[in-house]
Amino acid sequence: MDFQTSIKTCLTQKYASFAGRASRSEYWWFVLAYVIGAIVVSLLGVGILYMIYVLALVVPLTAAGWRRLQDTGRPGWYILIPVGVGLLSMLLTPAMPGGDMMMDPAQMDGQMPGGGRMGLLALLGVVQIVLLVLYLWWLTRPSEPETNAYGPPPQA
């Protein structure tokens, strides 16, 4: 499957389809298109536009990853594990006061998150790195050549 066919398949034919299987080329071409689009939209500097872009493509990106895992013989819902760990990390990460990265240290009130919270964040960071390596391994594996529990092999 080529770049354009992958984008067309994931955005129009299988936008929210979690059934079936996705070939390596379908998944990785779509991920490349997503990353290129995210870079372009973020360079525009309009935060709300980036948020709309991410929200518009979260379903097809998740569906493509779901189908890709099924293509390798793994349950598709496994794609939600790194998402959950990432959301948990986001919720636990302390926000900068005022959102300014170059804040004067005198304005920070001396408030630092507790050591337990920072330890948990460090542990979640390690878990995320391990998950990244594991999922890269799984998502780059060849398709199962025969029909598996999730359907026939995808058309390359």
Query: pLDDT below 50 for ≥5 consecutive residues: which ranges?
Result: none
Give the percentage of residues in beta strands.
under 5%
Q: If you average the pLDDT, what whole number results?
A: 87
How many strands? 0
> Helicity range of the residues?
55-70%
| Euclidean distance between termini CA atoms | 5 Å
Rg is 19 Å
Q: Structural class given helices, strands, pairing?
A: mainly alpha
The largest β sheet comes out as:
none
> Outline, from the CA principal axes?
globular
Q: Count of helices?
A: 5
Short description:
By secondary structure, the protein is mostly helical. Helix content is 60%, strand content 0%.
What do these coordinates show?
17% of the residues are buried. It is globular and about 50 Å long. It contains five helices and no strands. Helix content is 60%, strand content 0%. The protein has one domain (3-92, 113-139). With 156 residues, the chain is mainly alpha-helical. It starts with a helix and ends in a 17-residue tail after the last helix. α2 (24-43) runs antiparallel to α3 and α4 runs antiparallel to α5. The longest helix has 25 residues, at 47-71.
